[in-house]
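seq as requested:
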Amino acid sequence: MAVITALLMTVLLGFTALGVDTAALYREKAALQAASDLAALSAMGAPEAAEERAEAARARNRPEATVSALAQGRYLRNPALAPEDRFTPLAGGAPGVNAVSLSLDREAPLHFARIFTEASSVPLTASAMASRTGAASFTLTSHIARLQAAALSDALSAVLGLDVALSVAEMQVLAGAEVSTGALLSELARLSDLAPRNPAEVLDAEVTVQALFAALHGLSPEAAETLAPLTAVSGALTMPVAGVIAGIDPALGLTAMDFAGEVKVSTLDILRAVVVARIGPDSIALEVAAEVPGLLGLETRLTLGEAPAQSGWIALGEEGVTLHRAAARLKLDVALAPDLLGNLGAGVTASNLSLPLYLELAGATATLDEIACAADDPLAARFITAPTPLHPLNGTSIAALYLGTLPADAPLPVDPATLDFARILDLSLVIDLPLLPAIELGGLSVEARSDLAIGASRVETVSHSRAQVAAGDRVRHFGSGEVLDTAVSGLLDSANTEIRLRSQPGLVIPAQALPVIDSVMALLPARLLSGLTSPLDAVLDQTLATAGISLGEGALTLTGHHCELLRLVH
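struct tokens:
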């Protein structure tokens, strides 16, 4: 019995020894895991110094451990991916890095358990992964952003196939009715019967305009009455969700949806986004109530270029995301009083003074150059802005002004080589001859063409500090709004303007009329410049004001500074 007791006591002491060491190892493992978590969080706080920060955290919390397997990469909170597939290692500093993974290793000493083994310690490893994604949401002024009620109504009528007539009061209601883009995306997915495992896949979807208006109708009670007629739009009309909000990587999954939920957009801007997405090559009639001495008539149309795919009304994305605003073209048919040209000579009568003008406006881009998420960084976001280039023949200009005729299907940007002469003036002559009946000559027309590149593009950097964002100071202007000041005079300058006379087919011009015609053609360049510069300047200014366009000037609005909290994801 004593022998058995002795043996059992030995076994009991052995298990006790194992229990003591096992508990010690669990404690060491937990402490090592905590240190690993802290090291990963510290490294992700400043990925550009991940190794130094991880080492510093290790030295403070577990100096006896070593850092191993430190890797930067991209982590996706995407429910459609298996957990082991959500992290992809990337080179440090590479675009898209939003996570740091590392391990801490150490040798944990054995105590009583050494009686069972020759080893004096066992290796312990603790791994951790920390993630934080930073993004910004922003908008750019558009050539359609400030269309007045009548023009926007015409545009909506054209793209929707409905009779839309928005009043100024209704536009104000729509402008004040904001919706969360996250809620809008979720409602669009529901109405479109989309149920992906990754909810952010709706960002790549094509939805019906009817579903979009129905979603807005439900999410904007204050604008429901105004929106109700629009829900009658044909279910066959579709548009990409990216026409409203684009740029964020849908693979980010829940992160993308969280950020979208922080972005507010007015229902009026969504209507504008529909116009931009659906207008295609069609032009929009603008009703310009210009009050200019000598102006007899004015017809104006606005044509929008096509923006690149995946460039919505709002950009939401990480560093490198770019928002585009397409180029635009204003066509003005300006009828003026011929007496603006003054007296062109005895017996010369001018009539039907009409100038077809085209004003081409460069688009713009804004690229998120840096998003700062560190709490001690005074910068919030920095952007690089630039105009999009016009045709190479216009060099680095930001706009171009044309007098003449362009092909009806002329694309944007305009090729100046396609500009043809346009009829701008009719002439009739009465030439008195001594002792003979006077010669009456009609059927003469003056044709002209001219083009002028305006301004010079430049790349600019605009920034938002944390203090400015907190204070609501979110709009940054770029470019210059003074580029049109001398444009009309430059266009009409004789150095740029070609003028020629054309007669009706079969018309015989007598020799007695040639000196008079030569005199008129010699006078016209100076008279066009002196008589038409001021009224055309005023017409252009008032047309741009009606369209809400500031030529050469843009505005970038930071609608959201999005930074996830540092989080452990493994």
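The chain has a mean pLDDT of 88.
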